[in-house]
Amino acid sequence: MQPGMAPAGMRIRETLNAHPELTVILDASGNPSSRLRGRFLSQTGAMLKVQLATALGQNLLVSIAGEIDTGSGRQPLLGRYRVSSCKIAGTGKYHAELTPEPAAEESVSSNSCTDGEEPDYYQVLQVSRQADTDTIRRIFHVLAQRYHPDNRETGNQDKFRQVVEANAILCDPEKRAAHDVFLASEDKLRYKIFDSLQSTEGVPAEIRKRQGILQLLYAKRLTDAHRPAMRAREFADMLDCPLEHLEFALWMLREQRLISRSDNNHFEITWQGVQTFEAEQSDYARKSRAALPAPAESA
After folding, report:
1. How confident is the model at residue 116 (pLDDT cuts 50, 70, 90)?
2. Which of 13, 35, 266, 290 is disulfide-compatible with 229, CB 3.0–4.6 A?
3. Do strands 230-231 and 47-52 pair parallel, antiparallel, or not at all (unpaired)?
4. CA quadruple 123, 124, 125, 130: dihedral positive or negative?
5. How do residues 218-229 score in pLDDT, each as one tens digit?
């Protein structure tokens, strides 16, 4: 039990945690008044029972986003529902029964993750991997309103599905832990700078080492501004390169003032390092476009 919290308060918190929050969207205006907070109560077949602070008219068509408790864990929910009934359940409380609206046929060429590839859900929500649950939920509600298909200005069906899925994964401790393990293995592949056929010695190898270190520190600064430092051992692990082989690259980057080192042997990227990394990426993009083959001339 948390200090200072009475048993009654604990029961209230447990009750709230047992009923996931939903966003009920009334129309496509994008106004805050068109979005209601609801609380999932139960599911019978395809019908949902939701608690609201506002009465809904019968046969009203609404959009629902959030997550529900299926008994085997919380699952993301996204869809359009029609109000079957809405009855008062107490002071300022209404219980609405919602039936799913048949979905229109969608193109099979959707950009959602149907090919089995798991995205980095922290990047989807643009949060640090150390973000707490309250921060994740707050960012989710902002992005959900921005990308909801009913938003005529910024709506995006694929991005909306991704943020709903990301919120469900990152707010579940077990699923988040599994996702963190997956990302750790993916990081080793993403940032690995040498394969078995490439030499770890010579000028090209040293250039790759410096680029790899800058990329790691750039990504760290971008996604975790309050904790942008990394230890040298982390470079060795993520780049799959012995620490002793990175000493020259670290010295060179410090001399160029692209990175800085603290007294406790932690490294951070500097503003000069950010400019250098972004300039290299822009130069690479320009060279890639220039290397594209010219269109074939018609006969």
Report:
1. low
2. 266
3. unpaired
4. negative
5. 888 887 778 889
SS3 99: strand
CATH number at 56 reads: 2.40.10.220
Rg (CA), the chain: 25
Q: Tell me which residue range forms the domain holding 223.
A: 192-286
What per-residue confidence (pLDDT) applies to 98? 92
Contact 82, 99 (CB under 8 A): yes
| Strand locations in the chain (E) | 21-25, 35-44, 47-52, 61-69, 74-90, 93-100, 230-231, 259-261, 266-269
- 173-177 average pLDDT score: 81
Classify residue 80 by its DSSP letter.
E
Q: Identify the domain boundary among 186, 215, 246.
A: 186
The first and second tokens of residue 9, run together, are 């308060």
Tell me, yes or no, whether 127 lies in a domain. yes
Number of domains forming the structure of the chain: 3
Long-range contacts of range 208-211, CB-CB < 8 Å, 24 or more positions apart?
A: 209/239, 209/241, 209/245, 209/246, 209/248, 209/249, 210/249, 210/252, 210/253, 211/280
Residue that terminates a domain, selected from 164, 186, 208? 186
3-state helix, strand, coil in the chain (%, to 5): 45, 20, 35
Residue 270 is part of a domain; what is its CATH number? 1.10.10.10
Judge whether 227 lies within some domain.
yes
pLDDT for 37-88, tens place per residue? 888 888 888 888 999 988 888 888 887 777 777 776 667 777 788 999 999 9
**pLDDT tens per residue, range 196-207:** 445 667 788 888
Same-domain status, 43 and 125:
no
Judge whether 85 lies within some domain: yes
pLDDT of 147 above 50: yes
